[in-house]
Structure formats: structure tokens, C-alpha cells
Amino acid sequence: MVAVSVGALITVSACSSSSDKTANGDTKAASSGKGPAIFVVGGKADDPFWSRVKRGADDAAKVVKSGGGSVTWLAPKNYDNLGPDAAKLIQTAMSQGADGVVGPDWVPEAEDAAFKQVVSGKKPLVIYNAGGIDAANSLGALNYFGSDEATAGKAGGEFFGKDGEKNVLCVNTLPGAANTEARCKGIADGIGENGGKSSQLPLPSSKFGDPTAVAQAIKAALLKDSSIDGVVTIGTGDANAAASAIEQGGLADKVKLGTFDLDDTQLGRIQSGKQLFAIDQQPYMQGYLAVSALYAYIQWGIELPQKPILTGPAIISKDNVETAVAGSKAGVR
């Protein structure tokens, strides 16, 4: 069994005093006095991006708690075996009596069978963060909440192209994951439409979170190909490694840096002119909206007509960085 981080965000308290029907047709026992048990599969606890997603889920959980329900966060110990580990977390949610599940479809070939067990068990499913509306539709999920990765990548590629970059390296430390592959492909499509090109530097998943190893690999790639004038990373940790690689290689005046996702370090570099942009998918809203929508569906049968619900992309550059800084100080960007 994979080691997991399982944290109950809130406790279960009394709810209604009469029998109630959920949106999927199951009856909640009036004698139990409980609202729905919602389980959320997300990233690991020390991942800055996922801490913001969890903050959104935590805030939505306050409403769930007011209705007598609970929200439980499930996360993998690491990303070395991401797809199979995520599938086990989905199965854990079902074995622990989930009334509804929220999860990212990171690696469809590994996770989809587990997601289908949720739906075949007549429990509502929400896909968020990864997979997109196509995955949500094929799995029978209610909706998708998150950024469209290909669209986000294309926006980043276009930004590079309009800034004058011609050869961008997309560093992927989670190769094979649907969302990161879509990001790099989007970068290539976007810059390709603006007269440039992009190639991918796939690194083993074990290097995710190892800034020294990532920096060395990026530096080697930059020194090997002097035509590279842009680097984009799939997350903020790798962006820090890329910034170090660019500096170590003496390429700060030549190679522009961009990244997916956002944190204080990226904002600081954008403010100082050392980073071109960051692509914000507004992770707080992913956690908040996904949990809120699932709860409303289970409790009252409310289903949003708009599909998907997109939380990004938003390009943060020198032109709008100060507004993003204010959101970061509040812990939501």
C-alpha cells in the first residue's frame, strides 16, 4: 500500500433531522445526522502549488461542515509513481465511505479505472486541475475545474514569441503526466505560430523537487545548444532551479525565463526583471470551486450548466505583477 498523507480537514457534525435524498439517488440516514463525506485527492503537502489548492478546499470545507459533512484530503508521499499512487488514493476514498470524490486525472491510463469505480458506485465525481473536460466527460464526472493546460501553454508560447524568443526549452520533471505534456505541447504550438520553436527536456520524476539535479540538467542543455533563448518550467520549484542554471551559465542577458504556476519567488523575479512571466492557473479557486460544487450537487442537486469551469490561464508579467503580489500576500495566489 502506498504511503499517504490523510488529513481530515473538518469534523462531522449533526445535520438534518429527517430523511434526505442526495442528487445521485442515495438516501442519507436521518438517524446518523451526518452530511456528505467528501474526499479530495491532491498533491503532496510540501508542494507550494498544492498548498494553495488545499487552502481553497479548506475554505470550502467550512460550508460543508456547517451542513454536518466532512472533507478529507488525500495526498501521495511523493510523485515517483504518481498515476498508480493516485489510483490507490481514489480507492482509499471509496473504501472509507466517500459520498463524493474530487480528483485530478494526472495519468489517465493509471487512474481512470479507479475513477470509473467511483461513478459505477453511484457516487458523484469531479475532475479538477488535470485532465480537462474531455476526461470529465469520458469518466462520467459532473464537471472539470481548472486551467486548460494546452490553452495555458499556448498563451505562454505566444508570450515568448511576441517578446522575440525563437527557441524555447520546456523542462518537464513529470514526463508522461497528461497535464505537463499538454503544457509543453501548448508552448510549442504558441511559439510556433509566432515564428519560433520549442523542444522538451524530459527529466525523471525522481528529480522533481531536487533543485540541484534539475539545475544541472538545464545548464547542460543550455550550454549544449546556444540557440536556446527561452526556458519554461512546469512548476515554481523547477523555475527556481532554472533561474540558478541560467545564472550559473552566465546567460542572464540571453535566456528569458517563464514558468507555469506562481509563488512569491516568481513574483519577486518578475518585479526585478529577472523573469519574463508566470502562468497562473489560480489554484485556490480550483480547490474552492471543486469542493463547493460537489457539495451543492450532493446536498441540493445543483449542477452548473457551464462546462468546464476554467480558473486560468492568467499571464503574470511586469505589467500586472503588483496585483498578483497582493493576492499572494493573502495566501491565495
UniProtKB/TrEMBL annotation:
Main subcellular location of this protein, as a coarse class: other
Species, as recorded: Nocardioides pocheonensis
Protein family according to the UniProt entry: Belongs to the bacterial solute-binding protein 2 family.
Protein name: Sugar ABC transporter substrate-binding protein
MF terms (GO), sorted A to Z: carbohydrate binding
Gene3D superfamilies named among the record's database cross-references: 3.40.50.2300
Protein's cellular compartments: Cell envelope
SUPFAM superfamilies: Periplasmic binding protein-like I
Domain Periplasmic binding protein residues, every copy: 39-299
PANTHER family: ABC TRANSPORTER PERIPLASMIC-BINDING PROTEIN YPHF (PTHR30036:SF7), D-XYLOSE-BINDING PERIPLASMIC PROTEIN (PTHR30036)
Assigned GO CC terms: outer membrane-bounded periplasmic space
